[in-house]
Amino acid sequence: MNKTLRVVLFNVARFSRLKATWTGVSLPKTRRKVRSRIDMDLKHRENPVVTKLDSPEFKSIFTSEVQELRRLFDKYNYEIRIAGGAVRDLLLGQKPKDLDFATVATPQQMKDMFTVENVRMINMNGEKHGTITPRINDKENFEVTTLRIDMVTDGRHAEVEFTTDWKLDANRRDLTINSMFLGFDGSVYDYFFGYEDLQKRRVAFVGDADVRVKEDYLRIMRYFRFYGKIAEYPNRHEEDTLKVLKNNVDGLQNISGERIWVELKKTLQGNFVGNLLKTMLDVGVGPYIGLPQNTDITELNIVLKRAEHLALHPVSYLVALLKDIDDVTVLYDRLKFSGYDRDMAYFLVENRKDQVSDRPLLPYEKLVLNTKIKQQNAIDYVKEVLKYKGEETLLKQFSNWKIPQFPVSGKILKENGVPPGKMYGPIIMKLKNIWIESEYKQTAEDLIKILPDIIQEVHKNKNNQ
């Protein structure tokens, strides 16, 4: 960790003032909304089966563990279907990364069934929301959730009521493209026209968008994530939808930074990143996720023009909206992203300015060779800086650079009369810089010859402090 980072992280008083810039408004009061019959009686398909899958991607999901899960539920006469994102992905011709399941069985019925069948259950934290996680064949975990209705919501949490009605469960979900189910025979069940929306690459909320967003304000962020995943064009948002998001954006302040970052990071790894980020700012998301008030997008536009095609890390897009390391501190405190991502943000802000050198790669080599952080992280960060700056030639050269081994160690210093202690660090640093400037040609013997002069210089500097 460099000196600047330590100063920022421990400057608590200033940090507290910066934290207040998340938003200029006070925390909104908790809004409890009770589910009404109108909410649960939306226009829907009478016959929900819209197609039957028989694709290679569909067939590939039937591992022996999935088949065993199905066998258990069939044995006890509990209907079970694949739910949510996996259905969407299969309809797009993609093999889903993971499978979630929905069932008419209650959590207690599932627990009784798995206990009788000697199936181990893990992560019981989800039980209050209706989710049981069996470990099938002691090999694979599956989340199986009882059909439910979110009866009372406050924008973050929901009080649920279990049901056996598949339509009512589909009705509680956020987007139509995420509200479909898939039977083990390949039948796709779609109650709220998500199948058509998926064909049109349309991202729409189930029923009333305002109702859906108020149930969980994180859905504002999920809208943008799925737009980047599904849509064919960068700016074909429906104005009514954007208006709803804008009217509800203050609700994000009560959503945890960790949850926001999960959605935002995926958005910044998808399609149309620049357009989506600017649209998010237009609807007012910025101050509620830790970005500065009245964000200047000039730097973002520059970065997009020169580097969007270089597969930038999500942090790079956010850094383009930040002026200095203080802004990084505020953003980190809000989103609580990982230490790796935090240090990358600091590194980018500190090193994104143009470097002047007769050897263009030299400043970046120094950043790696003189780093105080894990060397591999420094290598990753330098690559990201070069991407951010659109320095494709330097990026290629740096990627091919073989890191040289500094030939002088503490042992060599001791053997040449330097007593162990605080002198070692400054002496090695000066020797290393001389070695770097020589393009790594000097040997240990070459550097030992100038050691007396270095020792004298270090002593002189110390005495002058």
Structure characterization notes:
Residues 81-203 form the Poly A polymerase head domain. Keywords: Magnesium, Metal-binding, Nucleotide-binding, Nucleotidyltransferase, RNA-binding, Transferase, tRNA processing. InterPro entries: Bact_CCA-adding_enz_type3_sf (IPR050264), NT_sf (IPR043519), PolA_pol_head_dom (IPR002646), PolyA_RNA-bd (IPR032828). It comes from Chilo suppressalis. The chain has 465 residues and is α+β, with helices and mostly antiparallel strands. Among the domains are: 34-202, Beta Polymerase, domain 2; 410-464, no CATH class. It is built from 24 helices and twelve strands. Strands 2, 3, 4, 5, 6, 7, 8, 11 and 12 form a nine-stranded mixed sheet that branches. Helix 9 packs parallel to helix 11 and helix 17 (339-351) packs across helix 19. The longest helix has 14 residues, at 375-388.
